[in-house]
User: Fold this.
Amino acid sequence: MTFNSKWVQLAVLLALIAILPVFFPSGYYFRVGALIFVNALSVVGLVILIGYAGQISLGHAGFAGIGAYACALGPEALGLHPALAMLLGALVSAIMAALIGKPILRLKGYYLAVATLGFGILVSMVLTNERSLTRGPDGMEVAELGLRDFLKGVGLKLSSGEFWYLVCGLVLIVGVWIALNLFNSSTGRAMRALHGSEVAARTVGIDVAQVKLQAFVISAVYASVAGSLLSLQNRFITPDVAGFMHSIEMVTMAVLGGVNSVLGATLGAAILTLLPQVLTVFAEYEQLIMGLVMILVMIFLPRGLLPSIAAKLRGRGE
Amino acid sequence: MDALMQFLLSGMTVGAVYALVALGFTIIYNASDVVNFAQGEFVMLGGMITVFAHAAGLPLPLAALIAIVLTALVGVALNKLAIEPARGAPVVSLIIITIGASIVIRGAAQLIFDKQLHRFPSFSGDEPIRLLGAAILPQSLWVVGGAFFIFIGLWVFFTKTLTGKAVLATANNRLAAQLVGINTGWVMTLSFSLSAAIGALAGVLVTPITLVAYDVGVGLALKGFAAAMLGGMGNPKGALVGGILLGLLEAMTAGYLSSQYKDAVAFIVILAVLFAMPQGIFGAKRTERV
Amino acid sequence: MKTAITTALTTGMTTLVALGAISLSAPASAEIRLGASVSATGPAAFLGDPEAKTIEMLVEQINEAGGINGEKIKLFLYDDGGDPNKARTFATRLVEDDEVTAIIGGSTTGTTMSIISVAEDESIPFISLAGAIQIIDPVRANVFKTPHTDRMACAKIFTDMAARGLTRIGMISGTDGFGASMQAQCHDIAAEHGIEVLADETYGPQDADMTPQLTKIAKTEGVQAILNPGFGQGPAIVTRNKAQLGIDLPLYQSHGVASDGFIKLAGAEAAEGVRLPGTALLIADILPDGDPQKEVVTTYKTAFEAKFDQKVSTFGGYANDAFLLMANAMKTGGADAEAIRDALEATTGLVGTTGTYSFSATDHLGLDLSAFRMLEIRDGGWALAE
Assistant:
């Protein structure tokens, strides 16, 4: 688990993203791929918060909502380029996370869960109710990023699906790279220390409140960027992006794949994004199967899919 | 003045609905430290089964009884199949398991019943009772009365009965409870069946007011959870006060400030209370497994 | 190091297996491919559920009767759960993977808007089942819709109010997409109908009691009538609460609750005298024999209620009309997207359950107010108010 491991993980992810399109029979698969990458990005953020630092959030969709609506509103209201609007969204999310994180992160367990849940609901309520700004629950259109046309101009013609597959894939790789670097940095070690025991972390001189806040802010930025990419890609956004169910979905993806593992979380995102697509044949039973998968994985593979499977493959069956 | 009275009555009605859901969380949490996010589905099942049993020709009380018993069985199954096998899992895993369970129950209800809204007749008619210029439906009194009845029942159960004390002991220290001869497996079964039965009873009481469909559980669980945390999880008094407080807050905000932001005000107050009292209003300090 | 490689390989393999699973459902053979993405589950299920059932039923019927010009219709139907993000993915799947020539769907405005960008990019004719005016205004080449706009519902209601001398009203709207959109549209056109909105309240889609909002409206000086845009349980609870408070003002509901279920939920007594703009479908039984819509609404109602043991709703009617329009266009257009689009735009005088459709290059809704009927609930049933 050293230097090598980090580069191997990155290389595998890069290879997967680069090679998979060879097997894609149609443009629809690029769309699904891009969605997986966007979901994986916000889930990698949750790995930092839940997996590294041991804190919980049921309101991270709120940050995705801020990022998404920044890209919708920035160009329209402030005349910003969508790319700049995305940065602005990330900045706003970071500031919000820092402001609410300070008091909220003193809470533990279910109390932290309800507080973050409250935050998420507040964001989605503002997006729903401030019609004059956000057009309300029916949603609003989002400006074109413009990069695809630019690429076409220099001779690189990509379909919308291919383009977003590429962009989201690249951003995901950057996100994973940052998360893996963080894991072994002093901040990352401090996070993992307080996950183990807050008291112990405090005795060795770690500023527990500060480290928790860092994890919260970083994960908020991940969610925000993912929200921005989603809204730019869909060209249309509704307040659902900030909804409670989206928060739950994010946490489920993280825990399902393996909340301590960046690649595991990516796998979790892939599975939960693919599942509804595979299950269209049994649309009636989709909910039933989704729920069962959640329960069964948590019972039989409590550390998440990837760590458990990897452990089995190594022959140390746990 | 009569407007204020109406807001109060409305707040009491809605608050009692939340309190009924919140009270259901209490027993399971006390026995196992699990916040059961499928609690809202118990309420839904209570309402839906009663609707369909009643439509099949059974008298309402019998239909309600069947709904409560069946839902209690679902509660036991939930414990045996999903919670027991995952004992000792971290909070986030338990949250996902119970949310997964709620999705399964909802998915099954959608297949077994239908996706329509339903209602059955109020117990004592729909003739409103006038009170100081305001009006309240007799069914609201049933709901408020039901909430108080269950609260007193739970309070007696936890403080006066040996079984109730066994539940608390199991939550405190499972091993120690076993050592003094408590059958902890039985305590868990009992807790889940009681919680589910309370949820189903809540569903029976509120359906004439709120209506029921296969997907009403999420919203109810969310509000009930918030109410229980506001009052302090695990304490029946907290559930009752938290629920009614939440209902009154919403009604007062809708009446005097803005109906658009009544839910927002409710959550802001919850956040504020938690900042000042991290364990809720009546919550006892207890060790959390994170 | 070894750990990392095992881990990485596992990820790779699992992803491949999962992607492989999708392609199992890949299409083959030559027939007319029709795509549909509706919200059969989720918060908009009572829109999408009857829509999905209607489309499946009609495809079955037409195939049993030999198809269109001898060609069978192959239906690809997806449930987007009311999630615009999923709707866009399914639209992409319909176009890129299932290679459909036309799409029906978009139960809500949000899902419709998500499908629109795909349909427009790929030039696939698309008939939406959602209400908002921005779907067809400005006109987009490939996008049509069957329901009346919210704005038309407001106009119909306001015209009826003005005729009864009710010009100062209070509104109580749901904060869901349907309620909020209609609330905004009604505000927009209130003044031109001489209507003044004195009180403007809202409630959440899951709320259990609206007496505070209704009390505020009733206490507002000069209010002569109450209008409640919304769908789901909200309007039933509003109607019951209004009776509970003994508020003696005329109540108008929207087309969002135009179904027999509403009367049952609100209770015949509380719902007595409630008016709403509805379609001919609701009053199939009392339509005079000479009515141009009599035949089409009776046919649909009989078939649907026999097959599903469930009352028809206006929303299923939207899907019925969309399918009639599409099938009609396919008679001339065959399996060619562009020809179907042109045939759709050239549709004139096609009688549906919602009204009589005549599209043009500048009008992709093709309905006017005449198809809306002001209905009143009397003795637990529907009656024509006019």
